[in-house]
Amino acid sequence: xxxxxxxxxxxxxxxxxxxxxxxxxxxxxxxxxxxxxxxxxxxxxxxxxxxxxxxxxxxxxxxxxxxxxxxxxxxxxxxxxxxxxxxxxxxxxxxxxxxxxxxxxxxxxxxxxxxxxxxxxxxxxxxxxxxxxxxxxxxxxxxxxxxxxxxxxxxxxxxxxxxxxxxxxxxxxxxxxxxxxxxxxxxxxxxxxxxxxxxxxxxxxxxxxxxxxxxxxxxxxxxxxxxxxxxxxxxxxxxxxxxxxxxxxxxxxxxxxxxxxxxxxxxxxxxxxxxxxxxxxxxxxxxxxxxxxxxxxxxxxxxxxxxxxxxxxxxxxxxxxxxxxxxxxxxxxxxxxxxxxxxxxxxxxxxxxxxxxxxxxxxxxxxxxxxxxxxxxxxxxxxxxxxxxxxxxxxxxxxxxxxxxxxxxxxxxxxxxxxxxxxxxxxxxxxxxxxxxxxxxxxxxxxxxxxxxxxxxxxxxxxxxxxxxxxxxxxxxxxxxxxxxxxxxxxxxxxxxxxxxxxxxxxxxxxxxxxxxxxxxxxxxxxxxxxxxxxxxxxxxxxxxxxxxxxxxxxxxxxxxxxxxxxxxxxxxxxxxxxxxxxxxxxxxxxxxxxxxxxxxxxxxxxxxxxxxxxxxxxxxxxxxxxxxxxxxxxxxxxxxxxxxxxxxxxxxxxxxxxxxxxxxxxxxxxxxxxxxxxxxxxxxxxxxxxxxxxxxxxxxxxxxxxxxxxxxxxxxxxxxxxxxxxxxxxxxxxxxxxxxxxxxxxxxxxxxxxxxxxxxxxxxxxxxxxxxxxxxxxxxxxxxxxxxxxxxxxxxxxxxxxxxxxxxxxxxxxxxxxxxxxxxxxxxxxxxxxxxxxxxxxxxxxxxxxxxxxxxxxxxxxxxxxxxxxxxxxxxxxxxxxxxxxxxxxxxxxxxxxxxxxxxxxxxxxxxxxxxxxxxxxxxxxxxxxxxxxxxxxxxxxxxxxxxxxxxxxxxxxxxxxxxxxxxxxxxxxxxxxxxxxxxxxxxxxxxxxxxxxxxxxxxxxxxxxxxxxxxxxxxxxxxxxxxxxxxxxxxxxxxxxxxxxxxxxxxxxxxxxxxxxxxxxxxxxxxxxxxxxxxxxxxxxxxxxxxxxxxxxxxxxxxxxxxxxxxxxxxxxxxxxxxxxxxxxxxxxxxxxxxxxxxxxxxxxxxxxxxxxxxxxxxxxxxxxxxxxxxxxxxxxxxxxxxxxxxxxxxxxxxxxxxxxxxxxxxxxxxxxxxxxxxxxxxxxxxxxxxxxxxxxxxxxxxxxxxxxxxxxxxxxxxxxxxxxxxxx
Length: 1275
What we know:
It catalyses: RNA(n) + a ribonucleoside 5'-triphosphate = RNA(n+1) + diphosphate. By secondary structure, this protein is mostly helical. Among the domains are: 16-196 and 399-431, no CATH class; 215-284 and 292-395 and 437-459 and 471-519, T7 RNA polymerase, domain 1, CATH 1.10.1320; 690-794 and 1051-1085, Helix Hairpins, CATH 1.10.287.280; 808-914, DNA polymerase, domain 1 (Orthogonal Bundle), CATH 1.10.150. Helix 12 (267-285) packs across helix 15 (346-364), helix 13 crosses helix 15 and helix 30 (796-805) packs across helix 37. The radius of gyration is 33 Å and the shape is globular. 43% of the residues are buried.
């Protein structure tokens, strides 16, 4: 259980201090760079058979690993393994002697000792490549070496040796163990693998898909079923083994396993097949320029043909560059990235490039320019993912179980601890996930940009234009992509745009090829067993979504997962992934009908939005009128572009729903760094918008029962917006609207359309249809329902804060306290705001008189919801201003600005008053983060000391700025959730790095663990991230408990879903899980962890100069030069002496005089320190004193939308990751700026003190167990 007494010894604590400055090798013929680049280069060089290049890279990589290290041995084993595979595949007999020389001469000379894998590789080579007596002599010699090393069992337990190898090894080198293994293999070895050549065809069911209108009628652009995803179109090709004798259910499971692997592996293959067909058609018919055929497949097919030729030409130039002395920059670049292009055949590489680039534009908006850096990185990442998938597909199926069985018996007979340990090691190795070298950001950008450059060269689009002279239409072939620059925040960014004709075609015809990656699965996802092992069957997925290039978080996850760690978290993600789904065919049919109208129906974006352009002012109009017209024009264009982007995305969702309309599918999940779960398929999932959720049904059904029928009625009321009343009133509301509900279910778009008035119209329509279906039965309670019923938290972040603080008033506001009616925190804040405005109006405030009684719940809701997640005051004013445009349109623009500031002040005041306990905890969290980010570890201090001493010994100049301790703050905020997930905040000030590509120079962020932390982001993100980690814990606990109770479960962060008949039971589980979690002293546990994790750090504190302590510290420094580095070194020495076990050392430490000792000697305490209110403008209820300067801060809504803490609130669009690659400057770190008031900084002085944290805020006396009686806790 995670709630036992907190054991600090179980914490995962890693030393993130770099030992030395990383060495970067000068590049020669593409060999060089830092360790990450060279490891990626090595991996690809081995794949393409460039073994001389690989050998050179291994020698250079030896500088990063000490002699005898496991890492360096792994590199040699990788080299040997790939070389042997190449030899066997190509029958390269001439490579045997060089390989043996490497193993028998070069490795011993380099101090590399072989292990079981090395011997297994050499035995595999000898058995497969040598013949006659030479083979037997060599095999015996290698086996004897392995016996001397005591590695016989370990070698046989590796999949490097195939079953036939083990049989041959047993014949040549007889031993008891080998004989036993052979015996077991003879008994059942033939049953351990399926021969796919013996598969027979199994006919698939006939497809009864509804016909969707064609392109000309504004349909989805899918003219027939064959235009859909190839996996489903080719369903009849799925085959089963001829000797299969399982049940029909087992046959279906096996068939779906095969289909799933094909679905993941064949996305590019299906595109290639389609484009080859298109190409054949074109060649047969000739290029008919007069035809109006604009199908995107035809365009993409031509691009593919041309790009293949361009890539092949590039590969020839790469070979030429590698074979000759470098005489140009282009040749040098080709030596650098060319080897990567060689790792995939030109056909697939061209298809991958086109699919990826078009997918990026389709997700982001075809008519929007996208940074080249984002496209290049995404393309580089997809390229690597494809190589990983390829290696997974071709990977051996694992060790024959009969071999492991024999080895277990052999080792068990020894009856020794050593035997048991060796068996455990064998099992661990058999189950060990493959480790793939991940390319660094520089490699991804270089490779991606080179591919984009080639597509840029060959991509054309036919456009008909009128000849100005002849007035005849002629066909032109302009470039399909344009490259332009844009100035953004003072930085020049390179953008790629697609031609408007491409935009027009894609709007009408979304290409199914772009959907063929990361789709919903047709079989249950692979359970999570490792940091990169789970989810999809072929494509590699990460258990934790980390910022691109992040080093520390993956290291902590890997350490935490040792010895089967994070078991409950992984089980919870597996529960979410194992939930089966179906498409709601009835809702889908209505949605297709709505789509085909091209109109805005139920939040579906219109095809041609009616956005009339205002008349242009006359030429004599004043400048203000011209600017106003230009602004309105921009707003209209932005709105039009927004509609287009949304419609493209919805088009993808409908295409996928159409393909899966007869399928049971699954949604694999992983989590972000806080533990919040997200589905991996980006388009169709339960976290999508209303139209997406309305299409989803559970695969399994359950009878409604009396309780379920009641909850189905309540669901309709909730979705209609009638969700603030009591449960009985909601149920009655549905019965009162029954006539409208039945009309909606029966007539859809042809009836009175009551469902379109709901807040969530498509989900409401689905619920109306479900209720209609139930009421058609003689006994509605016996209806088997598949509809998910939602139970949502009441401003869940505030629920956690109220529980943490024991705050009764806050608990009542967010439904933790039992009541007859639900409390609504948004309405509560709205009432508070209106009462305050009424009072101000009575006192003569003119603005208050205008607003009196007019502020609604919807105006305050977004600000209340995001306040707990770190929105700034000025961000809140912008949020309010947007709401005022919709709900108080009569206000002038000037009144709107004043009113937004005024209302935001009232909202913040209400929150500070209503949630006082949360306010105190938020400040404690922020204060703790401030101390952590302004502290140095003993290891960092030791490194600074060594660097300073080295500099003094070799230079006469002053110490460089790099040795300023304030430039060395690297301690990030790390904590452990109640379920054992180590959370590492990734916010650092990344170092920019320029990368020259064929299109432009790109600035990339080069992340590493020794980057200085971004104090502002660390401080402001910690409270919301901590709360998110708690709601994630609550969700995982609930998921596991529901699974154990036999309930179907899904979740969208703080919205939990199950069958209607199981809602009451799920609610009990949710309440119990919340009480269990918060019964632990969570903040006390966090304080204890911080003490262990950071207790040895030294903190740069400040004290007021005017205080007695400040005067004493200043007197200590008077007359002598002092520096932060010198005093840091001195204070660290004092702490080492005081903590020594030697009494003499302790006495010496007590005798030392430092600023900290003076402060302590005078009775200084934490209260005497000068501490800023570290959360600043993001604290609950905080209003900045200087509104004018705050308003100038360049922050959109005050929210960092790239931060996962906010992404969950704003949507789940899977966009290219731009955080790593950004041409923009870093936001100003407000906590690190010099203060604006002259002399305010000089009013304090600094000193190094041992890091201690403030006492945890006192907890209120509210009884947490009362939640168990709260009907509206989740409702």
